[in-house]
Design a protein that fits this description.
alpha+beta, five-stranded mixed beta sheet, 16 helices, 31 strands
């Protein structure tokens, strides 16, 4: 009989006839679906509450949603269906949705939402783990929606409800225009997978201190800050050994053995100084630990702790597409030492480089930088930025590098200036990444090892970008005479790729074009920047007239295959004014282009890869090219 009573109590009610919901039934649904209900409340609550208050308010709304006695919920199809046919869940969902939407409605003369009675956390701010760029973009788009539209989006993406049921549920929750809310929700592309990400999980939290200095001065406040709050069964507490040993790191919030092992300075991986000589690999995994402070366990502890839990005063940066979370296990130590006026630690976890830097005196102003290096080998793993100071940059080079030098990329005929190497660390050289003002030179790092000589350049990342020259798919090192001549007029265009996560840049001289009126020949070059994350590639078509000191960017394509190994073809055009004052449309295609045509503001066509027709100033034209195999390509723009 007991089992029969239970089955009757949890049986789904048919649409239009939901049965009574008692406290026991609702409590069972709350316990079973608590994380999902809190996520629902968190997503619907107004974003301007702040992430910490949103978390506590979401938990408070769910915990106060239990009925005081037997209750008859609103009878609508969405309610009757519930979560897996549970009317208790349906009741809780409607009640939570109603109270969360009330929080989004401004009240004249009153605060929109009073602070929650429970739960409360003293001395800590709690907020979900940070997600990636996609989660951040979705959160920003949702924050721009009104409360009802945000609720409609969440019910559609998280609860998987059809629009008619969402309309009925919003109506039951007191929304005056459910249809308008659904229409507004359509402005945000549906991404249900992101709604389930840790970015929007108020049950998986990070902790940060609040009034730390005041609590240090007052014993009672410090005692209150040490108290923990159990949220979703996870104990959030301050570390037993206090703030000091971890420097600028935030308080610890997990006791996971694997996470603790990753923070143990005695367990960091140290590779033998001769491992690279016998290994088939030429990546960061065979770099030895170098620097005079590799035995400073206190410094390593602070670096590891800040990596796992950067405090509010830590400046954190990452190349696009790079995660900033802590290491999954003990990372590999690459360097620990003093660089200019800072103590620097460089670590590698197999996918990322993490650089921790702190001032010589104290830890205030510490910085943590990340770079993605998955798949790095050879030239991609030949150097790392140790630090930048006074317009200069120092590098840590791979153990197989035998010589280092600097050279001006804009002066192909000038020789390279040797740089001293001390335990793999270069002498400082000018960094084009931090220079301001006009571009009259571009200093690059030249590295030599047993396989040859290569050029890299500082673009504001931890890993310098590798420079190549030649036909896509068969490009060679830019350090040769031909590569240097190709790059020289276009070196300053590298400024446009700073801080973009660039892995390598290739320069391809794809055409020479005789200019009208016998004015010599112009040079066409396409430079293509590849990124570590794969997307965000940039192809620039550049044109240089005879005697010009530098080329000019005339077309740009982002995330296009042009100029790359997958599509080694390009077509670009430019309006050119002759010394006599006449305007022309000049267009050039790469080798293999059998015909070029222009339509729109300028019309004309020509057989072969080159086109030159008279035009008006400011005219715009659409270019099309035909390849020798019959395929068509459009102009880069």
């Amino acid at each position: 009989m007991q089992s029969q009573d239970v089955s009757q109590r949890h049986a789904p009610s048919p649409a239009g006839s939901a049965g009574p919901v008692d406290v026991e039934q609702a409590e069972a649904a709350l316990v079973e679906h608590y994380p999902r209900l809190v996520r629902l409340a968190y997503l619907v609550l107004p974003p301007d509450l702040g992430r910490s208050r949103r978390v506590l308010t979401a938990h408070a709304l769910v915990q106060r949603a239990l009925p005081r006695g037997r209750t008859q919920p609103s009878v609508i199809p969405a309610q009757a269906a519930g979560r897996d046919g549970d009317p208790g869940y349906a009741y809780l969902r409607e009640r939570i949705l109603r109270t969360a939407l009330e929080a989004a409605r401004p009240r004249k003369g009153l605060p929109r939402l009073a602070p929650p009675l429970l739960p409360q956390v003293w001395g800590l701010r709690l907020f979900p783990r940070s997600g990636g760029a996609d989660e951040l973009a979705l959160d920003q788009r949702l924050s721009a929606l009104p409360g009802p539209a945000r609720a409609a989006y969440v019910l559609r993406g998280l609860e998987k409800l059809p629009d008619p049921d969402i309309r009925d549920l919003l109506d039951a929750a007191g929304v005056p225009d459910p249809g308008g809310a659904l229409a507004s929700a359509n402005s945000v592309p549906m991404q249900p997978g992101l709604l389930s990400s840790p970015e929007f999980d108020p049950c998986s939290l990070q902790a940060r201190p609040t009034d730390l200095m005041r609590r240090r001065r007052h014993a009672k406040a410090a005692l209150a800050a040490a108290a923990a709050l159990a949220v979703c069964g996870a104990l959030v507490a301050l570390p037993g050994d206090g703030w000091g040993p971890d420097g600028a790191a935030a308080p610890s919030y997990a006791g996971n053995p694997a996470a603790e092992a990753a923070l143990d300075p005695g367990k960091v991986t140290r590779v033998s100084p001769t491992a690279w000589r016998t290994s088939a690999r030429t990546d960061f995994s065979v770099w030895p630990a170098r620097g005079p402070l590799t035995g400073d366990k206190a410094l390593l502890r602070r670096a590891l702790a800040v990596w796992a839990r950067p405090g509010e005063t830590v400046r954190v940066s990452a190349t696009p597409g790079t995660q900033t979370g802590g290491p999954a296990g003990p990372p590999q130590l690459l360097y620990a030492g003093e660089v200019d006026t800072a103590r620097v630690v460089i670590l590698y976890d197999g996918l990322r480089i993490a650089r921790y830097a702190e001032p010589e005196n104290g830890t205030r102003g510490a910085a943590l930088d990340f770079a993605r290096v998955d798949g790095a080998t050879g030239a991609g793993a030949s150097a790392l930025v140790l630090g930048r100071s006074d317009g200069n940059v120092r590098y840590l080079t791979a153990p197989w590098v035998t010589k280092a030098a600097q050279r001006d990329l804009t002066k192909p005929d000038a020789g390279a200036t040797p740089l001293t190497l001390a335990d793999g660390v270069t002498a400082p050289l000018a960094s084009p990444a931090v220079r301001t003002g006009g571009c009259t030179s571009w200093t690059v790092l030249q590295l030599t090892d047993a396989s040859g000589t290569r050029l890299t350049t500082d673009l504001g990342e931890l890993v310098p970008a590798h420079l190549t020259a030649g036909t896509p798919g068969a490009a060679g090192e830019a350090s040769g005479a031909r590569g240097l001549r190709t790059w020289a007029p276009f070196a300053c265009s590298l400024a446009g790729e700073r801080s973009s996560g660039v892995r390598s840049v290739n320069a391809w001289a794809f055409a020479e074009q005789p200019l009208p009126e016998g004015r010599g020949s112009g040079a066409w070059v396409c430079t293509r920047a590849e990124t570590w994350r794969g997307d965000g590639t940039a192809a620039l078509a550049q044109f240089r007239t005879p005697g010009g000191a530098a080329g000019a960017v005339v077309a740009k394509g982002t995330d296009v295959p042009a100029c790359g190994p997958r599509a080694p073809h390009v077509l670009a055009g430019v309006l050119w004014k002759s010394p006599a004052g006449s305007w022309y449309l000049l267009a050039a295609g790469s080798e293999g282009t059998s015909a070029v045509s222009a339509t729109g503001g300028v019309t004309g066509s020509a057989q072969g890869p080159l086109l030159a027709v008279k035009a008006e100033r400011g005219a715009r034209a659409d270019l099309k090219g035909t390849l020798t195999d019959g395929r068509e390509i459009s102009g880069l723009h």
